[in-house]
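subagent[fold] <- orchestrator: predict structure for attached chain, return tokens only, no commentary.
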Amino acid sequence: MDITTVLFYIFSAVLLGSAFRVITAPSTVHAALFLILGFFNAACIWMLLKAEFLAITLVLVYIGAVMVLFLFVVMMLDINSDKVRQGFWKHLPLGGLVGAFAALEMAAVLMGGFRLNAAPEPSALALQLGNTKLLGIAIYTQYLYPLEIAAVLLLVAIIAAIALTLRGRKDSRSQNPGDQVKVKKGDRLRIVKMAPTVEVPAVEATAAAAAENSKGAA
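subagent[fold] -> orchestrator:
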């Protein structure tokens, strides 16, 4: 048994343990931290498989961005996990059955990969270009349509998330671009015609006459 095999079993054991703690941890923050540990061990396994691009993408995107966002949201919302755990034992048999069925499906798909005695040797083209460039060529040539379908699905999910969380508040002030485009100059400025002369009010005329009389008497 070489060092690569030993490291694979170590990383796999830690990955399985952290994945189990994600669903059994009493605190949501601890569950998110265990998920980060699981992602890190998955990245180490990909490094052992010489998939450097996938490993560094997992570290940068999921651990560096997505999980930080998860922790921020969990700590800001202060989720009460007691209500979430209500009815856990009631739904445990159904959940275990679904999990066992998913595990059997994954085992049926991945069983063929364990029958290889040794990993195939990389071709001369792979050694020359590298796995990152070969991955890009395969994605944008052979798997172009599945990539576009996945992009459309993600776009629909983003729009649905925005539509579900968008709430209008009565005390908020915002501008309507449609009303701004339809506005006319008559709605902004109104010219009022006025007479050229304005009559002096009676009160001011009486005060002016009294002032003149007082001056004449003096």
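orchestrator: received. Logging for downstream: Residues 52-77 form the longest helix (26 residues). Residues 1-79 form a domain with the Four Helix Bundle (Hemerythrin (Met), subunit A) fold (CATH 1.20.120.1200).
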